[in-house]
Amino acid sequence: MNKITAAITAVGAYVPEFVLSNQVLESMVETNDEWITSRTGIKERRLLKEKGKGTSFMAIKAAQDLISKSKINPEEIDLVIMATATPDMPVAATGVYVATQIGAVNAFAYDLQAACSSFLYGMSNAAAYIESGRYKKVLLIGADKMSSIIDYTDRATCIIFGDGAGAVLFEPNFEGLGLQDEILKSDGIGREYLKIDAGGSILPPSKETVENGQHFVFQDGKTVFKYAVSGMADVSEKIMERNNLTKDDVNWLIAHQANKRIIDATSSRMGLDEDKVLINIHRYGNTTSATLPLLLSDFEDKFKKGDNLIFAAFGGGFTWGSIYLKWAYNKQ
Ligand code: UT7
């Protein structure tokens, strides 16, 4: 029997309807469309505004989109991995609730938190379960309600982030398609530069932490930018090298959408032509765990069976990495 590889066989997505444009942000904080566009590439982002709805709401919608398009029976799903940095609640895993709500009643589920690299790490997890031969259908969802942890008076962060969700199904493949190689990295030096100070075990919530705004994301953008540029480019170049991929062999770069300039730096180190670099940051901003599956969903029509995709991400922690995957199907 051929070796089992782990292939993506279906995708789904969801973004909320509410659009927050650069123009509206101009009336909220001291910023302007020109600055945001030239420094980040973002034009607008989606926000989940409805009260009482959390990350699970979007994750369920993305999973349902995948289920209805692929016509799989949710009862056949073995495992749901929920990649998110903004779970519904600190305790009671969001993925468990999502699995039950989508009818994946035979699955077990858990959450995976690695900031903006959550989905990339989740791909590694999902693939390993499939390659082991133990499970046949692993649903990986990346979803974040970043608006729940953003201070909309802080121009350093509120212009960047948005809400959204995407989902992929991993299944066994016997033609050698699917995940080929991965380089995953982390470095605790990053914890000072991108974080939420309060609400965890070091600094539990209190009146003071709320008054001091310590439940919002803090980012030292310049420092994170520097590490992101070198981190993402290094691993992407290395994964090409060790798989003997030339720039012509790579069909698509699926890079975390944090800043268009970081993506440009990565693709230029890889020597890729612009038309191979998939971009939707202008529409959604940085949706953290959802950027990679939202790209897959938006550009699914373009992918052909056998195409070489390089995934790359960089996030808080720091966490980063690159994955080489062969696409497994032509969209009907
Ligand atoms: O996804 C997880 C990983 N995160 C990332 O990868 C994000 C990495 N960082 C970045 O993308 C960029 O650092 C930012 C987009 C966050 C900021 O861009 P930057 O080019 O690094 O800007 P900066 O922070 O160095 O600020 C440049 C100038 C400053 O003014 P002075 O000191 O030069 O007079 C800021 O005060 O721009 C000013 N500025 C703004 N101006 C208008 C900062 N934010 C804004 C703003 N609108 N929103």
From TrEMBL:
Molecular function per GO: beta-ketoacyl-acyl-carrier-protein synthase III activity
Ranges where the Beta-ketoacyl-[acyl-carrier-protein] synthase III N-terminal domain occurs: 110-188
Enzyme's top EC category: transferase
Active site: 116, 256, 286
SUPFAM superfamilies per record: Thiolase-like
Role noted for this protein: Catalyzes the condensation reaction of fatty acid synthesis by the addition to an acyl acceptor of two carbons from malonyl-ACP. Catalyzes the first condensation reaction which initiates fatty acid synthesis and may therefore play a role in governing the total rate of fatty acid production. Possesses both acetoacetyl-ACP synthase and acetyl transacylase activities. Its substrate specificity determines the biosynthesis of branched-chain and/or straight-chain of fatty acids.
Protein keywords: Acyltransferase, Cytoplasm, Fatty acid biosynthesis, Fatty acid metabolism, Lipid biosynthesis, Lipid metabolism, Multifunctional enzyme, Transferase
A Pfam entry, by short name: ACP_syn_III_C
Family: Belongs to the thiolase-like superfamily. FabH family.
Domain notes: The last Arg residue of the ACP-binding site is essential for the weak association between ACP/AcpP and FabH.
Domain Beta-ketoacyl-[acyl-carrier-protein] synthase III C-terminal: 240-327
Protein name stated in the entry: Beta-ketoacyl-[acyl-carrier-protein] synthase III
InterPro entries the UniProt entry points to: ACP_syn_III_C, ACP_syn_III_N, FabH, Thiolase-like
